[in-house]
Amino acid sequence: MTPEVTFLGLLLTTVVMLVFAAWTGRRRRLRPHLVFVAGSLIALASAIYFALQVGERYDLEAAGVITPVHLTIARIATVSYLGPLITGPLVVWRRIPPRWHHRLAWTAFGLTVAATVTGIWMLALAERIVD
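^ that's the sequence the OP posted. Answer follows.
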C-alpha cells in the first residue's frame, strides 16, 4: 500500500473515531468514550507519521501559500488536542463544568477538519516528485 492510501485510511479512521468519541461522550458513556478517544489519538499519530512520508513524495513548495497555511493549522490542531485531554479528567472529577471540555473538544475537531481540507488543497496543487 502506498503512503497516500495508508494516510487517507488513518485520517478517515481518526475522524470516525472522533465522531464516536463525541457521541459516547454526549451520552456520558465513559468507558466507550475513552476507548474512542484513545483510538483517535493513535490513529492521528499514525496519520501524522504517514503524512510526513506523503510530504516527501511531493514538491509542497509548488502548492504556494496553502502549504504554510496548512502546516500552521495542522500544528495548531495537533496541540489543540491537549485541551480536551486535560479537561476530560477535570470534568470527571467535577473540578470544571462539562461545557469547557465540550468547547475544547469541538475546537480540536474543527481544527482537524480544517487541517484535512487545507491538506487536500495543498496536495492537489503540489507536484508529485516520486512515483
